[in-house]
Structures are given as C-alpha cells and as structure tokens.
Amino acid sequence: MAEFVDSFDSAQTDQDRYASIEEEPELTGDDQLDALVGAIAEYLAKQRRLGRVPHWVCDPARRLEKPWFTVTSPSDSMREYLTFSSPAEFASRNIFTEERPLRRARGPHPSEQ
What we know:
This protein has five helices and two strands; from the N terminus they run H-H-H-E-H-H-E. It is mainly alpha-helical.
C-alpha cells in the first residue's frame, strides 16, 4: 500500500495519477480490503484535486456492512475519536481510521543523519 501511494505521488502529472486509479482492481473477496481500496482511490482523487473520481469506487462491493475500526481493540473513546476524525471517503464505507490515513514519513531516518 505504501509503495502504491509513493508511486502515485511521484507521478509526473495529474493525468498519470488518475491513470493509476482509473481501472478497477479485481475484488479480492476480502470485504475490508475491497472497501479500503475504494476509499483510498476516492481519497487520493479528491485530496490531490484530480477533478474526477473513478466510477468503480461507487460499487456497493466497495462498502462494508459493519463498522471497521482500523485500530486494534479500540477503547470507547478511541472509537468515538475515529468516528469523527475519519475522512468522508472512508467513513462512508464504514471504515474508521485516523484523520490523515495515507500520510507518509518523509526525509532520512534520524539514525541516518
């Protein structure tokens, strides 16, 4: 996943970025993964202001019936936080995660300096 986001972000143009999410990936049969892929594609298209979102992200198979909190064994207060902080592209699919789910660390690791 991280490698895909890095590759998406390093694309030369918005057209290249959109091309990387335009075609629908096959459903895996893992409901959480299938919904997550739809959320990520929609989130990237909107966050990077590509001007359009791939049509396939609206497929009902890209949504979960039951809530999924991406934090292992969240407390009640953590569930509440995730419910309100999750980006709409994730929450609309019943996926509850942190405010910036695809953020990546940049720059050299402190031990490399």
